[in-house]
Amino acid sequence: MRPEDILRPMPSGLCSPLGDFHIDPTRPVERALITHGHSDHARAGHGAVLATQETLDMMRLRYGANFAGSTQAVAYGETLKLGGVDVSFHPAGHVLGSAQICVAANGTRVVASGDYKDVPDPTCAPFELIPCDAFITEATFGLPVFRHGDASAEIAKLLRSVALFPERAHLVGAYSLGKAQRVIALIRAAGYDKPIYLHGAMETITRYYVSRGIDLGELRLVRDASKAELAGTIAICPPSALQDRWTRRFPDPVSAFASGWMRVRARARQRGVELPLVISDHADWDGLTATIAAAGASQIWVTHGAEEALVHWCTLKGLEARPLNIVGYGDEEEEGVSADGSSSVPSPLEGEGQGGGSSDDPPAKPTRTTPTPNPSPQGGGEQSGAV
Ligand SMILES: [Zn+2]
User: Fold this and answer.
1) I need a surface site. Which of 89, 116, 229, 275 has the fewest CB within 10 A?
2) Which residues pair with 299 in a beta bridge?
3) What pLDDT does residue 342 have?
4) Which helix (H) or strand (E) holds 220?
């Protein structure tokens, strides 16, 4: 059986004609299988949703109890029969509950990875390699310049700065779902045991992580602290809050940003980031190419990011590869902040996370809904819109 008979790209996302479902559909469908809770993959309004318990919970937190007609939780490794195919979910190492979805029929396996990373993350199950015939990969950092290095070395950089400037507050911009909690866990792993402060938009999802057994130490809300109390502390906030008047409540804040894009110095400069931290929840170039090689698939389909470079690499390796050009998958690392720092579309999670927050917390955060153009890692010559 050909992989296209098992899964095929449609304008609405990856569709399984034999199984009568979509994976991460970009518009409402009757039956959706969801890889993870980020808003460009997990949308509200589907009839039936099949996902891990954590992803279903995150969708509930983000969209409310009625985000789908019905839901079903699936455990990692469990195999379900849907129409003419077998489906199973496997850890993607991206965020808590994230899964690659394997769809198999007549001995042919297609794996849709959603977003993934192949490096350790204390807040989620490690990426699992699924041998397959066709592998559907993202390419957010699909250029050789993107090598993220060791996240704990970046955290060490942050902690050195905290020690060096005991009167200043350190504000770390980090995406609210996944990155923020991973940064906190990495700070704890480095031995920092003082309270860590949270922006109101982080509260709901971070408490959820804690409820799932992820130990994040003592957490406090920025809004409950005085300016004097915030001297010498670390606070985690959505990236866009770094440019907000919200930062005025901190004494002489140091602006840090945890993102794979911080590998591009021009991006850090452009956003006024004093302390760039190269920490990504996506595979870097080495991770993408190593995973593709190890999966043993003869066909590679690339869904979003720097598709062309990765497709080219695959072709050089003798693999059949093509970009899928599905419109709608974005880049959560940027959290929808445009080049000028302004926001456009409100994100339900951010709005909800601020519930009960003080009135001078920033307005609801945006979320990107269009694909990110290729980055220009050399800096200086970034394409318009490639924030
Ligand atoms: Zn994601």
Assistant:
1) 229
2) 134, 320
3) 34
4) strand 219-221
Q: Say if CB 277 and CB 286 are below 8 A apart.
A: no
Residue 39 CA, ligand 1 centroid: distance in Å = 8
Distance from residue 279's CA to the centre of ligand 1 (Å): 14
Both tokens of residue 140? Answer: 């957010």
Angle formed by the axes of helices 151-164 and 179-189, nearest 10°: 70
pLDDT at 112 over 90: yes
Q: In terms of residues, how long is the chain? A: 387
**Ligand 1 center to 291 CA (angstroms):** 17
CA-based angle 178:182:186, to the nearest 5?
A: 175
pTM of the model: 0.86
CA of 36 to the centre of ligand 1 (A): 7
Residue 296 contacts residue 132 (beta carbons within 8 Å): yes
Q: How far is the CA of 167 from the centre of ligand 1 (A)?
A: 35
Residue 59 to residue 56: CA distance in whole angstroms: 5
Exposure string over 184-214, b if 16+ CB within 10 A, otherwise e: bbbbbeeebeeebbbbbbbbbbbebbeeeeb
| Ligand 1 centroid distance, CA of 245 (Å) | 28
Judged by DSSP in three states, 51 sits in: strand
Distance between Cα 114 and ligand 1 center (Å): 7
Cα-based angle 283, 286, 289 (whole degrees, multiple of 5): 90
| pLDDT higher than 50, residue 102 | yes
Question: pLDDT tens, 304-343?
Answer: 888 899 999 999 999 999 998 777 787 666 654 333 333 3
